[in-house]
Amino acid sequence: MTTQGEGSTTAVPRWVPWWFRGAAVYGLVVLLPQYFLPPPAGGEVFFYGFIGTASAFQLVFWVIGGDPARYRTLMLVGVVEKLAYGVPVLILFAQGRADALYVGAAIIDLVLGLGFFLAWRVTPRRER
Fold first, then answer.
1. Residue 3's beta-bridge partner residues?
2. Are the CB atoms for 4 and 12 separated by under 8 Å?
3. Does residue 63 have a pLDDT over 90?
4. Which residues are paired to 2 by β-bridges?
């Protein structure tokens, strides 16, 4: 089954918009409440900067989900965004420098990143 994005005539598998929009909602649900947590002492700028930047990127995922064929190239940027958190957390955990609490979130991000990559593979290039 396929769907067409806003203004797009390229057939896109139906799961692709759902995957990106679901990732956006999940990301905002996980990230935004962290604004109400106390930041690590001395790391306030990095903490709030991370939360803000990561939250803004969830909006990019929402936009991609609105017209996957149009924003196909951004899907690979989304893969990088997911790898940028997931891989370091797993490495730090393996070194005993990250709590197991973060591993679950890292695995979820890596699964989402894999989905972004698969979405990129199955989404046809947009006709110009």
1. 12
2. yes
3. yes
4. 13
pLDDT over 90 at 30, yes or no: yes
Q: Is the pLDDT of residue 1 over 90?
A: no
Q: Which residue has the tokens 């790898």?
A: 83
What token pair was written down for 93? 């955990």
- What lies within 8 Å, CB to CB, of 21 at 6+ separation is 61, 62, 65, 66
Distance CA 77, CA 95 (A): 27
User: Could you tell me if 112 and 23 are in contact, meaning their C-beta atoms sit under 8 angstroms apart?
Assistant: yes
3-state secondary structure (DSSP) of residue 9: coil
Q: Which structure tokens are listed for 120?
A: 């990129």
Give the predicted TM-score (pTM) of the model. 0.89
